[in-house]
Design brief:
Radius of gyration: 51 Å
Number of strands: 20
Largest sheet: 6 strands, mixed
Strand content: 25-35%
Strand order of the largest sheet: 2-12-10-5-6-7
Distance between the termini: 196 Å
Number of helices: 3
Helix content: 10-25%
């Protein structure tokens, strides 16, 4: 083939190539947990016919680069994976509206990531056929956990920490001190937005009740902790020994009462047995006594026989 003919063929092929342009008016989407995310995707094609229109939505989570299919459509037939059934609303008549937007219901933190919209309309085989949308799922901070680290005694270093397990965007933490009337008072220690409150040399004036607030764009949560001086080891040991001695004393009192009652009952039984033996002895002695006949009972006329 001569060079001139080759050039004519190449120009004719290039002239048949049509372009497609895919875009989105919103590359960043924020949605609260449990809400619905609208992912907008529109396209322009030099070919007015859309019989060969193909649309695909994929999801890339922050923790994985493996794409997960969310929605697929070809020649007007929709395919929604089982993991998104009942959640994904497919586009309405995309061939006519040139709009391939979808919406996803009941968004959860695991749904945060990058969503990719791909549109192809044969014979459009070139151009910008893909667009990315970053989705953030906003969540109110969960109830934070407050804890104390260190010996809570005057002159010691004590640290308070506060942390929420969940929350998007990442919560910021503030500490306040409460008096007996729950009135806010300034904190004397060194606090950070990561939830740490440090007392390098704590004094009795810094003991009391402290509240930590975890806050983000969606809302806030808090926890309260009491900062009181620790009880000394000697006091604890004394309390333990006193409790043990009290238990021993109670046991001795109970044993003494039980022993006294047992001894008293034993003496009663012995006394009863002794009284019974005396009665028996007296009765046996009366049974062996002989009755004597008085001499006066003999008649005067009776002579004693030889």
């Amino acid at each position: 083939m001569c060079p001139t003919l080759r050039s004519l063929v190449l120009i004719s092929v290039i002239g048949c190539v049509e372009l497609i342009t895919v875009s989105t008016p919103q590359k960043y989407v924020n949605v609260t947990i449990g809400g619905t995310a609208l992912l907008q995707c529109i396209f322009k094609s030099t070919d007015e016919t859309t019989t060969g229109l193909t649309t695909q939505w994929d999801f890339f989570s922050h923790s994985s680069m493996t794409p997960q299919q969310v929605y697929y459509s070809q020649a007007g037939k929709d395919v929604i994976p089982s993991s998104y059934e009942g959640r994904v609303q497919p586009p309405y008549s995309p061939g006519t509206t040139k709009n391939t937007s979808i919406s996803i219901r009941n968004m959860q933190p695991s749904d945060a990531g990058v969503y990719t919209c791909q549109v192809h309309n044969f014979p459009d085989v070139d151009g910008k056929s893909e667009v990315n949308i970053n989705v953030n799922v906003l969540e109110k901070p969960s109830g934070p956990y407050c804890s104390v680290h260190g010996d809570v005694e005057s002159g010691h270093r004590v640290t308070l920490t506060c942390h929420s397990e969940r929350g998007s965007p990442t919560p910021k933490y503030t500490w306040i001190r409460l008096d007996q009337t729950k009135t806010r008072r300034p904190v004397l220690g060194r606090a950070t937005e990561t939830g740490i409150l440090e007392f390098r040399n704590i004094s009795q004036f810094e003991f009391g009740e402290y509240q930590c607030n975890a806050t983000n764009a969606v809302g806030f949560s808090n926890c309260i902790i009491e900062l009181t001086p620790d009880v000394g080891d000697g006091v604890i040991a004394g309390a333990v020994i006193g409790s043990l001695l009290g238990c021993v004393l109670i046991i001795l009192v109970v044993w003494f009462i039980a022993h006294t009652l047992k001894k008293h009952k034993y003496n009663q039984v012995k006394q009863s047995e002794a009284n019974e033996m005396k009665r028996s002895a007296l009765q046996q002695g009366s049974d062996h006594v002989t009755v004597a006949t008085p001499a006066s009972n003999l008649h005067e006329g009776d002579e004693p026989q030889a």
